Amino acid sequence: MKKLFALVLALAMALSLVACGGGSSKPAEDKPADTPASSAAGESSGEAATPTEGGSNLAGKKVGLAMPTQSSERWINDGGNMKSQLEALGAEVVLQYGDDDVQQQVSQIEAMIAQQVDALVIAAIDSGSLTTVEQAAADAGIPIIAYDRLLMDTPNVDYYATFDNKGVGVVIGQYVKDALDLENAGDQTYTCELFMGSPDDNNALFLYNGIMEVLGEYFENGTLVVKSGRTSFQDTCILRWSQETAQQTCENYLASFYAGEHLDICLTAFDGFAYGCKAALTGAGYTAENWPIITGQDCEVMATKNIAEGWQTMSIYKDTRLLAEKCVTMVQAVLLGTEPEINDEEQYNNGVKVVPTYMCTPVAVDVNNYKEMLIDSGYYTEDQLK
After folding, report:
1. What's the predicted TM-score (pTM) here?
2. What DSSP assignment string belongs to 312-329?
3. pLDDT digits 0-9 by tens, 302-314
């Protein structure tokens, strides 16, 4: 059995980019790296700060925030960060979570329209299922900003605030490539199974494409071997980013294809999938001595603890404080009649239009740099990671 865990620790890259907006096709003017305006709500310490100067310049304005779920801590943080920053600007905020129920989210947005909100920020549960309610918002003169999930098949989305979703996949793929030195693998092969994101989330396909941009050649030349035979996005996507489905899928793979062979890489697109794979691997008898590479995304508290303890290899740090701040400045600009800052006008075509976008940069975090990236930056405290 390959001692992959030791190999990963020796070879893993520690990326150090923390600026928001890298990798864009139309970068803004050079300026100092962004500093988070507020801490992750409910997780990090520190007070929320006003994202731009202006005091109460949104007084009398009402903003609706439609978030997809409370089952992932990152969405709780996103909603809380935006709410506190908008309130610091004087706005009234209506914050709702859809609990992974599309119709519930539709009803919540309808209620926000009825309450005559001045702007809507929507992180969709199903990116293509809100066209009717989006039209109702447009008919009421309410601008819409898509938040980290592109709203599909509609002309009624004005701006998009997100991380570089393809870039997330590229970073994950590059991490695995460098950790295993795949470029110089020779006859060495590694087994790998893929656990990709939800098919109703446009970001998931971008992420998959980023991974394949880096690792596709190694699947094709046989350096990476997928014994299940499932390598396409359609065959590896997991609806609603379900941890339980990821665990069940991994258990099935281990029983069906790896009963007599070692699984070297769980290539997952989300920390929740990593938890599911960890549980499946533990149940199958894997230990620290033969633990595979497990990737992830979001740097949740549990994921970070697992990284520190060696049960997850890496995750993608997406500083939601910065993303929330960028979205708030978009809302502020729209409501004050000015142009929001964007850095991409090419990549995000929703099937009807190319949506002007501000992208933030994803960063790889592993055992070598998690303290610097997450604790020293104030995203988490040491006590939270005990």
Report:
1. 0.78
2. --EEEE--HHHHHHHHHH
3. 999 999 999 999 9
